[in-house]
Each structure stands twice: as C-alpha cells, then as structure tokens.
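tool_log.txt
---
The assistant was asked to compare two proteins side by side. It first ran the structure predictor on the initial sequence, then on the second. Raw inputs and outputs are pasted verbatim so the downstream comparison step can read them without reformatting.
(1)
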Amino acid sequence: MKNKKIKRILGLILVLGFLLLVNYYLPSRINPYLFQIIILCGINIMLAVSLNLINGFTGQFSIGHAGFMAIGGYSSAAFTYYLGSGLIKSLSSVVMFGWLAKSIVFVFALFLGGSLAALAGLVVGIPSLRLKGDYLAIATLGFGEIIRVIILNIDAVGAARGFVDIPGYTNLFWVLFFMLLTIVTVRNLVYSTHGRAFLSVREDEVAAEAMGINTTYYKVNAFVIGAFFAGIAGGLFGHYLLYLHTNSFTFMKSIEVIIMVVLGGMGSITGSILAAIILTILPEFLRVVKDYRMVIYSFTLIVLMLTRPQGIFGVEKFSFKKIRNVFLRKV
C-alpha cells in the first residue's frame, strides 16, 4: 500500500515537472497562432470529456453545456477582476512569492467558477432530469439561453458590451493540468462502482430502477460533475482571451461540443479527446479556402458520421496493451 502511494506521489511530481517544462519552453518557440490553437484544443477537450459523462456514459441529451461554461467564465473573471489584485498583494506578504500568490488566487477563482456552474447544474438538474429524450434537450437548451440573457443584463460584467480587461492568468500549464484532471476524474469515475450505475442508466433506465438504482440521483450527479468542469473550462477561456462576450456561449457552442462527443464516440473518452483536437484544428486548417471553409467543414462531418456512425472510437478506449497485442499478432 505504501509503495503504491509513493509511486503515485512520484508520478504526480513527474507529471507536474513535465508540464512546467512544457509551459516554460513551448510558448516562446512556436508561433502565437499555433499556441492559441493548442490552448483551445485543451479547453475543448475538457468540454467534450465532461459532456461525454452526461451524454455518452449516462445516456442523457444536454444542450446546455455552453451555459455552464459561461457561468464559470464570467464568475471567475469577475472574482479576479474585482478582488484578484488585492488578494494577490495580501497573499504575497504571507507566501513571499508573487507567482505563488497569483496561482492561489487563480485556482480559487477557477474552482469558484466551477462550483457555481455545478450549483447551476444541480438547480436545473433536479427538476429537468426527470425528463427524457427531446424534452430534456429542450429544457437544457432553454437553460443555456436563460443564462446568456441574464448575463447580457448584468452591467458589472459588461452586459452587452462584453467583459474586458480580464487578468491574463491562463497559461499552458494550467490548461494541460486541468485537462488531465478532467480526463482522470471522469475515467476513474466511470470505472468505479458509481460508473457502473451511470452505464446502467444509459443502457436501460427502467431495469436500473428495478434493480434499486436511484436513476435520478446518478443523472443529477453526472450533470453536476460535467457542469463543474465546463465551468473551469470557461474560466480558463476567459483568462486566456482577456475578454468575454455572450456570443461565445450561444446555442451553437453547445452543438459544437455535442458534435465532438458524437464524432468521437458516445462513451469513449479517447474518442472525445481526438474529436476535440480534430474539430478545433480543422476549421483553422480550412481557412485557406476562405468562403467555402464552413461548407467543407460541414460536408466532412456528414461524411464522417455516414461512414462511422458509432464515432471514431465507438465505445473503445486507448490502450497500450491493445497496441502491443496488435504488433504481437503481426509478429
């Protein structure tokens, strides 16, 4: 037991060290445009994996993920904008390192945004997750639009003008760290006892209830966890672009994340990661064709869904063991 704990601690230290090295060397050695695409890939992976917990593993159909992202983005940005500088000065006198004080404030802001998004997920989840199918989709769509309209009327966060002068605390380290945290959390959850309950709800809700599983509890649970990581993704997004506007959190943003989940494979974490990377890079790659960019993008999605309706990975996951077995068979 002690050896396992030691290995985990060493593994965590190695991962953190690697992320710090990447954050130190990579930004100054690549084009800023490419660097921005990498940042957006990491944020979209968080959104896709967290939504896959709701849509893929629990079998619900939520179209309100952009709303949770907006709550996390605006609330964390408001915290750092109005209170961040004062807290950093106060903490600097205690911890003696400015970068450490800034990191503490930023992480707290992200968790605050994620927690408020999770709370919103709980509030909307308890009544609406008793719905199923199209009715649930309509309810979550309405929730996302309500959040957007409310933000449009809050002058403290810029209202229709947008929220400007957000502190630029997001860097590659934090994006990669929270991306890995999202993936590991969802993976461990899915392959735990609770994860089996999520899957049972997806496969047959009536049978799951007959076996004594509280289906409403697990659906709300998935909704809250997914909303939490969507809120953190929104916080990272706002603190990277230094500007937030409700146009970034429209119905189409939710659809974009749903496409990533469906294209990657409902219930496949590996598929969500791969699809998020592809669908973030593809529109940028197609800029060379200018006016036909979105036509080709849409056509490519249609072809992929017709030829691979179960998604790129289906319900499979990446495994070094499977790759090794493939090579051993060939040998």
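(2)
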Amino acid sequence: MTSMDDSYDLNLAAAALRSNSTDLRLLLKALSQELADTLGDRLRVQRGGGRFKKSDVISSLQINLANNQFEAVMEGSDLRCTIGRFSGGIRIRNEAVDVNVWIVKLLEALQAEAAHSDGARQALENLVIGGTT
C-alpha cells in the first residue's frame, strides 16, 4: 500500500502500531516524533525529570485535533488515555478509554485531517505503514 484511503482498516493499523511499540513509553515517543512537525502547537509533550534536569522519557502527550483532545499519561508502567470533546471552546465530555481505542480514534482524527493536509496525510502514512521518522 502506497497511500491511505478510506477503506484502510484503522483497527488493523492501530494493532500494528501497538505491536511495533510494545513498550508504552516507546509508543508515546514514536507518536510525538511523527506528529511534531504536522501538529505544531496542537501537540504538547511533557517529559519526565525535575526542574533542573529534563529527561528524554515522555510522561504525557496531549493532542488537539478538530474538537477533540487526546491525552495519554504514563502512570507507573500503565498508560491512562482520555479523549475530551470540545464545543465552542468548552469541554463537554471527557472519556477514559483503552489504549487501543485511543489509538484508533487518534488515527481516525488524523485521517479526517489528512483529507485536506498533506502533512497530516504523510504523518498518518508514516505511522500506519512505517515511513521514515
């Protein structure tokens, strides 16, 4: 497959992404690296470490796409994922979801954005079919 289309199974893509990043911290790192250029300030990355020493380890990601806010926070060895829905700049819903559901919903939002953004399309392709980072 050389390009994304509407028939591409995002559940399969999410499973592949998840299996290629068995360590949840590596998954967050891969997502942040791939989406940084495309999303700019719509991606917020929180790194571990103290006030004077920052770590390369990512402790949380926050991604804003359309009217959704995707948040993934490392809590020990677990990843807590939520999807917030906004309307008129006000959060109207916040739902805790499984990491696999979170990835699928994130890929769906990226796919919608890819319809009108070459950068989002390239990032989505890289994430699901293994492009270069």
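---
observation on (2): Residues 1-8 have pLDDT under 50 and may be disordered. The longest helix spans residues 24-39.
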